[in-house]
């Protein structure tokens, strides 16, 4: 199964076991991350609905990209500026595709727990 995910303003086609380099995501090496912005999913030539679909990934490393040299010059004005830049990025390993979001379940649990707490408070008063 494959999915097209959007993170850091870019789109990536991923499958289970793939390693991708994305814009910096908070977390340490070994942490798990869920990517919820799924644009497309499918298996082979069959497409599947993306409602509630997530991609589970593990952070392998936080790293820096290659240095990019920024050189500015204006002819005949003795103006030269040289700067370097290294972009931070995160290396992810895709663990699984197809997990359902658990936001709906947590909301339901909170709704069920609130009336029980109110009944207990009313009984003691």
TrEMBL record:
Name the GO cellular-component terms.
ribosome
Pfam families annotated for this entry?
Ribosomal_L21p
Asked if Transport is a keyword of the record, the answer is: no
Organism superkingdom:
Bacteria
Task: Quote the biased-composition stretches of kind Low complexity, using this chain's numbering.
Answer: 113-125
Kindly indicate where the leader peptide sits in this chain.
none
Please list where the region (Disordered) is annotated. 102-125
Q: Which UniProt keywords apply?
A: Ribonucleoprotein, Ribosomal protein, RNA-binding, rRNA-binding
* InterPro entries, per database record: bL21-like (IPR028909), bL21-like_sf (IPR036164), Ribosomal_bL21 (IPR001787)
Tell me the protein family, please: Belongs to the bacterial ribosomal protein bL21 family.
- Alphabetical list of HAMAP family matching this protein: Ribosomal_bL21
Assembly behavior: Part of the 50S ribosomal subunit. Contacts protein L20.
Protein role: This protein binds to 23S rRNA in the presence of protein L20.
Identify this protein by name: Large ribosomal subunit protein bL21
Annotated organism of origin: Sphingomonas japonica
Q: What taxonomic classification does the UniProt entry list for its organism?
A: Bacteria, Pseudomonadati, Pseudomonadota, Alphaproteobacteria, Sphingomonadales
Q: Which gene encodes it?
A: rplU
